[in-house]
Structures are given as structure tokens and as C-alpha cells.
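**Reference record**
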Amino acid sequence: MRRSELVAAAPCRADLFAAEGTGLTRSAVKKLSEAGNLLVNGVPAKAGALLRAGDRVEVLIPDPEPIEARAEDIPVEIVYEDGDLAVVNKPRGMAVHAGNGNREGTLVNALLFRLSSLSGINGAIRPGIVHRLDKDTTGLLVVAKNDAAHLSLAKQIAEKSARREYLALVEGVVGEGGSLRTCFGRDPKDRLKMAVLPEGKGRIAETAYSVEETFARNTLLRFSLRTGRTHQIRVHARYLGHPVVGDKLYGYKKQRFELAGQLLHACRLEFTHPRTGERMAFTAPLPEDFVRILDIVRRDV
């Protein structure tokens, strides 16, 4: 049994706060709560309990169940690896873990073949996975090889000390950078999509963005995540009126280019090593299809 201790900085739901602080899913936190393993100020609490600033939250995590996902010999670029973690450069078209019909060919399947161990906190389906990228988003993510590293990395993401930056080619010309802080959650009209919600609904999502390069019909933006909601950058780009090029879910119905997915790339990842305390930063170059489209839009007049 492992124990993760967190202190709430502002009012929020216990399950949301515990999920962000540990890297667990909300459903996993709910199961822990039902088993009496979610405590607020030393007392077992329900998943939906409301926290106040300063409340002490303890999450008791049972020993992980055996990993059941099958190892597959799938090529994947490992940018860095040591005994506690690995940083990988995920290609387009690869789901991070099983779900929605993806049972094989995922990043987890590839990692089980190439790495000697993975953390078990997220169970048999998501071993080692601290944070995720959409299937058609490319770039860097860190995976944990043991539970201690997993808890440390998840806490850094929750507390915003880990930095994640993305490059995206968006539709139209964006005049200047800025930031967005919106309410965020499931689209009430389409449960397969996420959306910016009215004030007081859903969860807070924060994204900063800056202009990297401007073209006649497009803009290359750099996005920095301050929270990590599902599809956050893609939804915020659409909210700005400048959806990501190639985004078939949130972008324009009529796309100029034939692409396998959105031109969104996790280009930079920075965190503190959970064992050594060393600050580490990694970068990944743009994939070939992204570079090819940039060459085209640079010639636009």
C-alpha cells in the first residue's frame, strides 16, 4: 500500500483534486473512496466531497495489479531512459493506451516490449502512463518505470512545476499571443467532444499561447499548458476562432490539406527528476508531415 499526501490550495472536489495530484483517473479515485482509501483530514471521504483551502488529502493506493497488456515489437523513439523513467517521442496515429477499440498497437504495447518495468498505479491498461497525448498528436511524453516516480511526476504536473509546450499550425492569422482561462468539460450537444462551458460549469482550463511565425493564411503558435484537460489545446484553439489545421473533430469541415491528423506537436517537456532532483528538459523536432505543410504555407501570398 502506497500513500500520497496532498494539500488543497483552493476549494474543489476531492476526486478531481486527488486525480490531478496522483495521476489516477477519477474512476480509480472513486473506487479508492468506496474502499475507504480516500481521506480528508484523516477521515474517509466520498469522492464528491468538497474541499476547502488547506484540507489535507491522503490517497491510499493498493499494490498494483499484475500488468496484463501484451508486449508488442512496435518501433517507438525513446529520447531518454534511466531506472525511473523514460521520455518518448510518440508518432501520429498511435494511441497511448487501450480504449475506444484500440487493443493493440498502442504506446503501452510498445513500451512493455522495450522497457524492463513500468509503474502499476494506473492498473493493467495504462501501466507507466503519467499523462497522455491524443492519438493523432505527436511529440514528447514521460512515462514512469516505478510507482514512486509516477507519483512524483503526477504531482509536478498537478502543481504546474512540470512544463509542457506544443507547436500548432492554426487556421487564419493570429495577431498576438495571450492566455485563456475558461470553464471546460463535455460538450452538452456531443458527448464525444469537449467544449468551453458557461461560467461555473465543468473544470478550469488554462492555456497560454504565443506567435512563433505568421503566414498569409495561417499562424504557427506555441502553446503552454497550465492545466491538462482532454483536448484542451484543440478546444481552446477553436474557441479563439483559429482551429488547428488537420483537426477533423474541432476544425473546419472542409480542410485544405489531406492530413492523417491535426498539426499539433508536443515539442518541449521539462520536469524535475523524481530521484535526483535534477531539472531536465527535452525537445523533439517537428514530424515530416508538419514540416511539409509549413513549407507550403510559407509560399502562400
User: Anything to note?
Assistant: The longest strand covers residues 203-214. The chain has three domains: 2-61, 64-159, 165-265+291-297. Helices lie at 14-22, 26-34, 107-114, 147-158, 232-239, 288-297. The CA atoms of residues 77 and 89 lie 5 Å apart.
